[in-house]
Design a protein that fits this description.
Length: 257
């Protein structure tokens, strides 16, 4: 009984390490990320592509209300997986930091600097008693000094830089697919196709323009832009990924997007 009570104490205390050096609440936050629908980020030669599975839980839900892709600044986009409410808080924090940097220094904030500022904020919530970690992972992509950059944030507050990555459900399978299919030097258009191919592996029935979101930031204009539903439908049809009209959209997780 004593061992069980000690385990329970480690389980509940965010500021308490277990005897083997683990923070259980941080690990639970990572599990929350795994329950969210998948998001993908790909760094191309001339830009960055962010894509997200936005399948609705019900046909009565407005697709536009599902928030998975966000504009943090003109040159920065963010995709999320995990608790949407947590993602919104971090996105608002990132937007404030980006604007403060513009006002203070008169220039756009670097992608790496912004990512590390976000992860510093996340890390604080792994040390504060009475608060829980953020149950969300983010993909932060954009253009820095004319070069595409792509980063991931972890619920522990650790930043990672990637050429291509996935977060959310089926992360391992999607990452294996990206490792096999990704090639350095691909164009943004090719990266959009690869991102859709990757997301399609989580849905055997195919994808719909309303059930997926794609955004790009290119070196040419350094502007975040979401791909329209018409363009997505054309690309999905071209790659034979378009779901049949008579198939109902599958529901996503009840609590996470």
């Amino acid at each position: 009984m004593q061992g069980q009570s000690q385990q329970q104490a480690y389980d509940r205390g965010i500021t308490i390490f277990s005897p083997d050096g683990r923070l259980y609440q941080v690990e639970y936050a990572r599990e929350a990320v795994k329950r969210g629908t998948a998001s993908v980020g790909i760094r191309a030669e001339d830009g960055v592509v962010l894509a997200a599975d936005k399948r609705a839980r019900s046909p009565l839900m407005e697709p536009a209300s599902i928030e998975k892709l966000h504009k943090a600044d003109d040159h920065v986009g963010v995709a999320s997986a995990g608790h949407v409410a947590d993602a919104r808080q971090l996105i608002d924090f990132a937007r404030r930091q980006a604007q403060v940097n513009r006002l203070r220094y008169g220039e756009a904030m670097g992608i790496e600097t912004l990512t590390k500022t976000i992860t510093d904020h996340i890390q604080q919530y792994t040390q504060i008693g009475g608060a829980r970690p953020f149950g969300v992972a983010l993909i932060v992509g954009g253009i820095e000094n004319g070069e595409p950059r792509l980063f991931e944030t972890d619920p522990s507050g650790t930043p990672y830089e990637w050429q291509a990555l996935s977060i959310g459900s089926d992360r391992s399978d999607l990452r294996d697919y990206l490792e096999a299919e990704y090639e350095e030097g691909i164009s943004t258009d090719e990266a959009v196709g690869l991102a859709l191919d990757t997301l399609a592996r989580t849905n055997d029935d195919g994808l719909t323009p309303e059930g997926v979101g794609v955004a790009t930031i290119t070196v040419d204009d350094e502007q975040y832009a979401e791909v329209s539903a018409e363009e997505l439908e054309a690309t999905l049809a071209e790659r034979d990924l378009l779901a049949s009209d008579d198939e109902d959209d599958e529901s996503a997780d009840a609590d996470e997007e």
